[in-house]
Design a protein that fits this description.
This protein has strands at 4-5, 10-11, 16-17, 22-23, 28-29, 34-35, 40-41, 46-47, 52-53, 58-59, 64-65, 70-71, 76-77, 82-83, 109-111, 116-117, 122-123, 127-129, 134-135, 140-141, 149-152, 157-161, 170-171, 178-180, 187-191, 194-197. The chain is built from no helices and 26 strands.
Amino acid sequence: MSVRIQPTAQVDPDAELGEGTAIWDLAQIREHARLGRDCNVGRGAYVGPGVRIGDNCKLQNYALVYEPAVLEDGVFVGPAAVFTNDYFPRAVTPEGRPKRGDDWEAVGVRVAEGASLGARSVCVAPVRVGRWALVAAGAVVTRDVPDFALVVGVPARQVGWVGRAGARLVERAGEPGVWECPSTGALHDEKAGELVERR
């Protein structure tokens, strides 16, 4: 299966695209970005220079992934979600001249395997979104999100746990700290504020 690039998309010749990846209308993939196999980049999405994206990732329409972001395998980025990359965003220096690449240090967002970011959510770098975590639509992430955590609001706060299927986990009756996925039946153990899958 070959790479599919719509004629209106802009893909820099120095970008790397894995087998089966599709780049849709008006999307822009910048120089030295690297996307894995079977990724889907929606209309108008932006992937910055040097961004690293794993296999089987999905960027919905108008998602903005600024460098030096790293997305591991199976990450979902909802429509119009934004990853920032600047501690102190300014158009000009204190002297009033336009800021250039050497005038600031880019900081990145890292999204671990299987995590999902809802529509219009914002990740304010530097933060890490944990494995299989779920960031609700419109949430603003300003601190690290634990594995399997469900976070909502501005700023984002944890309100529960989710499993690999994305469904909110339910604590088992009479078994404190044991969480079950209503979709798959998978069990998870909560210990010291962290959730671990049972194998």
